[in-house]
């Protein structure tokens, strides 16, 4: 085998491992969305506790992604990838063996910490190993396609597991995949780091995490809405202050905060997941509560979205080159918004044909949008900041997810009936996604 062929084969192996890292984070999310009803019944948990099962993961994930990106650049991207896999496995074991809802939420928080180390390290490795922009766009498209594979594998396999082995099995499913990443990575992936005098920004981490946690509390715990908003604003102000003082050692250096292209891309990512995660939380929950579908049927009913994503996401790289990244992002967001608007008319998912049409539109939109968003984020900065930029865009995604589950879940709960609450939640989700279309159009091509 020639050196060129060997290098190509090695990179295929590396990309496969990095896709496994994405897979464990996304399979976990998609499976748990389907399992929340069974968890609520099994552990006697009310709707707000079920929101925390999802948002405990989303929040720790979002709050620590920036530090995860910094650690990847500072300590070594492969090493941080391995640590993330180990922490994720521990969190999944705790969740799968949890005796009560508090322990389950704790396990979810721990898994989120693992994901915060895994994801930026994996995307940064792509940015460093694939130097050619066109080859990198293809690699990121494949990497993003692992999200779609997770959306297909998670609900279908998860629904069957919930029916046959109980909800605990969906957490234990993640363990062998995480162990594969942990053990395989040092044998196949070259180490890379770019410290450049950087350090972990503990004050920035503290105030940034506090701001995000307060926003999640405001979204879910209605009686604490205004106190939590005040705390979030104060923490955000203190975050900006300490970041300005930290200079080059800041968790988010000021040049990145001033990067208009990166800011627009992050806004698009947050708007997308705000709507999408709200859908994935509320739609299966309503199907199962109303006995429209059982767990296996609900998993199968989510397939139009995930299969559309899998079928089309790998094309995002070539389409970006042909049509332009900005157009592809805007078109994808418009389709996602249209799909969620269709779901708003589905009577809480009980009009199945309408729900399936909405899911299909959403999946096509996600396929068009996800790869270009990720590629634009890492392309907006120099290679030395690849870990930080990838962490920023994934933080934006998880902030959107956290607020989507919290806000849309609360809007749903406040409805006069199930149909009205669901329609109001989906209408708000669609409106936020459509606002993301304008942000996508404002991003530089």
TrEMBL record:
Position of the signal peptide: none
Compartments, record wording: Membrane
Molecular function as annotated in GO: transmembrane transporter activity
Organism of this sequence: Metallibacterium scheffleri
A GO cellular component entry from the record: membrane
Keywords: Membrane, Transmembrane, Transmembrane helix, Transport
CDD domains with a match to the protein in the record: MFS_MMR_MDR_like
Record's protein name: MFS transporter
Any Pfam family the entry gives: MFS_1
Domain Major facilitator superfamily (MFS) profile: 14-445
Cited SUPFAM superfamilies: MFS general substrate transporter
Topology class, membrane: Multi-pass membrane protein
Transmembrane spans: 58-76, 83-103, 109-130, 142-163, 169-188, 200-218, 224-242, 263-283, 295-312, 333-353, 359-381, 393-414, 420-441
Primary site of residence: membrane
Entry superkingdom: Bacteria
């Amino acid at each position: 085998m020639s050196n060129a062929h060997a290098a190509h084969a090695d990179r295929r192996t590396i990309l496969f491992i990095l896709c496994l890292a994405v897979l464990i984070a996304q399979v976990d999310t998609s499976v748990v969305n389907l399992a929340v009803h069974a968890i609520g019944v099994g552990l006697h948990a009310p709707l707000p506790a079920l929101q925390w099962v999802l948002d405990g993961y989303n929040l720790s994930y979002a709050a620590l992604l920036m530090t995860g990106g910094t650690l990847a650049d500072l300590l070594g991207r492969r090493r941080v990838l391995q640590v993330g896999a180990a922490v994720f496995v521990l969190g999944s074991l705790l969740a799968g063996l949890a005796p009560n809802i508090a322990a389950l939420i704790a396990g979810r928080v721990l898994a989120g910490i693992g994901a915060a180390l895994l994801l930026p390290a994996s995307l940064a490795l792509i940015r460093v190993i694939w130097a050619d922009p066109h080859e990198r766009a293809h690699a990121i498209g494949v990497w993003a396609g692992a999200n779609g594979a997770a959306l297909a594998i998670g609900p279908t396999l998860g629904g069957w597991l919930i029916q046959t082995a109980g909800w605990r099995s969906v957490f234990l499913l993640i363990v062998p995949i995480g162990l594969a990443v942990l053990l395989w990575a040092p044998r196949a992936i070259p180490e890379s780091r770019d410290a450049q005098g950087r350090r972990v920004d503990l004050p920035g981490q503290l105030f940034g995490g506090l701001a995000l946690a307060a926003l999640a509390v405001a979204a879910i715990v209605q009686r604490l809405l205004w106190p939590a908003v005040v705390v979030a604003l104060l923490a955000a102000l203190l975050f900006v202050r300490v970041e300005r003082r930290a200079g080059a050692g800041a968790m988010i250096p000021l040049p990145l905060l001033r990067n208009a292209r990166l800011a627009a891309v992050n806004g698009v990512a947050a708007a997308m997941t705000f709507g999408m995660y709200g859908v994935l939380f509320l739609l299966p929950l309503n199907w199962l509560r109303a006995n429209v579908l059982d767990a296996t049927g609900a998993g199968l009913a989510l397939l139009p979205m995930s299969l559309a994503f899998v079928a089309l996401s790998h094309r995002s790289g070539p389409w970006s080159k042909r049509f332009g990244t900005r157009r592809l992002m805007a078109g994808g967001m418009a389709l996602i918004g249209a799909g969620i608007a269709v779901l708003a008319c589905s009577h809480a998912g009980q009009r199945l044909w309408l729900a399936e049409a909405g899911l299909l539109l959403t999946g096509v939109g996600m396929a068009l949008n996800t790869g270009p968003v990720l590629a634009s984020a890492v392309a907006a900065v120099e290679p030395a900041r690849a870990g930080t930029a990838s962490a920023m865009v994934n933080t934006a995604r998880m902030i959107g997810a956290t607020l989507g589950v919290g806000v849309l879940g609360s809007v749903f709960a406040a409805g006069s009936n199930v149909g009205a609450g669901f329609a109001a939640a989906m209408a708000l989700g669609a409106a936020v996604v459509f606002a993301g279309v304008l942000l996508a159009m404002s991003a530089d091509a």
